[in-house]
Design goal:
209 residues; alpha/beta; Helicase, Ruva Protein, domain 3; Dna Topoisomerase Vi A Subunit, Chain: A, domain 2; 7 strands; elongated
Length: 209
């Protein structure tokens, strides 16, 4: 069926436009521009793009330890014995871990939740990778959890939930410093801001996100 936003397009063109529209941040106009750009793209480049997309689906897995995306499990970070095994930085998405890694200011481990608590979107605590986090804390190696969820309403609610969940274990829980703007996303923060937030993190008191 032809796209509602490109009524004169052939079915194959309309199909690609609709496919692009499903991507986050891509509206009808952008989807059309991307489609017609690909029409003009050399076949070799188009094939390279298609192969890269298929490779992602075929080769990417979730690390059995930290739940981050990787081509191997355990991932390179979890397998690196030189990383600080006593600290785990908890992030909402894989891109957040990547942003923190870029700062070169953190040398511990990560745990990726793959989301945040958001009742509006139907996402609860059971939908996050919290069971896997608790399993990692059983042997007593970890002495500090760094809550690095985004400083917005959902991120703060998730941080508070995790703090209450972990409190009985006696593990120190810290939160990134407020150098991060309220409502900002980690993946868009500059390296300097993230570094300062890491270095200035503070301990989370009971009942405080």
């Amino acid at each position: 069926m032809p796209s509602d936003f490109a009524p004169s397009a052939s079915p194959v063109v309309a199909r690609l436009i609709d496919a692009f529209r499903k991507l986050p941040g891509v509206g009808p106009k952008s989807a059309q521009r991307l489609t017609y750009y690909m029409i003009r793209m050399p076949r070799e480049e188009a094939q390279e793009l298609a192969d890269a997309v298929i490779a992602i689906k075929d080769r990417i897995v979730l690390c059995e330890i930290c739940q981050n995306i990787s081509e191997q499990s355990p991932c390179e970070i979890c397998s690196n014995e030189r990383r600080d095994q006593t600290r785990i930085c908890i992030v909402g998405e894989p891109l957040d871990a990547l942003a923190i890694e870029r700062t070169r200011a953190y040398f511990g481990l990560y745990h990726v939740l793959h989301g945040v608590i958001s009742p509006v979107n139907g996402i609860g605590a059971d939908d996050l990778k919290l069971k896997e986090l608790l399993e990692r804390l059983r042997d007593g190696t970890v002495t500090e959890l760094i809550l690095a969820t985004n400083p917005n309403l959902e991120g703060e609610a998730t941080a508070m939930y995790i703090q209450r969940l972990i409190s009985p274990l006696g593990i120190s829980v810290t939160r990134l410093a407020r150098g991060l703007s309220a409502g900002a996303d980690l993946e868009y923060a500059d390296d300097t801001t993230l570094t300062q937030a890491l270095q200035g993190r503070s301990e989370v008191e009971s009942g405080t996100p």
